[in-house]
Design brief:
six-stranded mixed β-sheet; single chain; alpha/beta; disordered C terminus; 6 strands; 52% helix; 14 helices; 316 residues
């Protein structure tokens, strides 16, 4: 991706390096920025910002470059490499599986899952985890996380099923305003036909799987388990591990609030953040309201759900 005679590779940011390739390809074809913009179906100011490296091009922009320059997949690969720059080496395999997944099932007991985070929430998470980093370094981390949302813009996006422990809603990450906007975002994304959000209430007791985990379903029908640890995540596709995770997820779904009640609880907490600097968890009376709603719905959920609700877990 580097042209001889230009700035050293170390002096270019990933976005600048990609922009340089776009500029060289355009000049080689004898086109102005306006002519290229017309062919790409993008505005000229955007093309200019990409070439200058002021913004990393979108995935669609890279695909259009491959089309007009006749370089199938080349600009797309360069752009993806630029997007992944700075990402820990151990996390890149996960990102590759995430982009190809047909379904993503997530259980979060600490934070909202990455793809569903707002920029402000993600910034607060990163600042707490990396207090020694500069604002620029934190911004780069946030930008990389926000780019993961691009998979929802695909022609065939994966289905996302996110179960959040209720404590995540009351965690206060970034303060009341940040939490309020994060919860509003969760309600908004729940309208996406491929996204489901449920809340695992504290009234359900200990979850069958305490730590955060994700199950990625691939196009070939296989599943991969990703688990969070303190320092890094780990992936496995062993039959035993994946089967255990899927079983735990079914139990989590059974004990979580139904979608309608989950959204009602999220809205309730969002309202609490709007009126209090330090919102408190649901009162016992309010908790009983949600519990009664849930009990009324349980007969319609079938015998399997009722069985999971009362079946003792192994080892407990």
């Amino acid at each position: 991706m580097k042209h001889v005679g230009e700035e050293s590779l170390e002096s270019l940011t990933p976005a600048e390096e990609f922009g340089s390739e776009v500029r060289h390809a355009r000049v080689a074809h004898g086109w102005t920025q306006t002519q290229l913009a017309h062919r790409l179906h993008f505005q000229q100011p955007y093309v200019s910002r990409v070439e200058q490296g002021k913004v990393l091009a979108s995935a669609d922009f890279a695909d259009q470059c491959d089309r007009v320059f006749g370089t199938p997949g080349t600009f797309a690969r360069w752009r993806q490499r630029a997007a992944d720059a700075g990402t820990p080496v151990w996390f890149i395999p996960y990102l590759e599986l995430e982009r190809k997944a047909t379904a993503i099932r997530s259980f979060s007991s600490i934070f909202v899952m990455g793809i569903l985070q707002t920029p402000e929430y993600a910034e607060a998470v990163y600042r707490a985890a990396h207090p020694e980093e500069t604002s620029t370094q934190i911004k780069d981390r946030v930008d990389r996380r926000m780019r993961r949302r691009e998979l929802l813009d695909k022609a065939a996006p994966p289905s996302i099923w996110a179960i959040l422990h209720e404590s995540v809603l009351w965690s206060g990450v970034g303060g009341p305003e940040v939490m309020r906007e994060q919860l509003r975002h969760l309600v908004a994304v729940s309208e996406h036909p491929r996204i489901d959000v449920q809340v695992f209430p504290v009234s359900s007791g200990s979850p069958p799987w305490g730590r955060p985990f994700i199950v990625l379903s691939q196009q070939d029908g296989t599943d991969v388990l990703y688990e969070e640890t303190y320092e890094r995540g780990r992936m496995t596709n062993t039959v035993e591990a994946v089967r255990g995770a899927r079983t735990a997820y079914e139990r989590l779904c059974a004990d979580a609030l139904p979608r309608h009640d989950s959204l009602a609880l999220i809205r309730h907490v969002m309202e609490a953040y709007s009126h209090e600097s330090h919102p408190r968890p649901l009162s016992r009376d309010m908790g009983e309201v949600f519990s009664q709603r849930r009990l009324r719905r349980m007969p319609r959920m079938g015998p399997r759900t009722r069985g999971y609700r009362h079946r003792p877990h192994k080892g407990q």
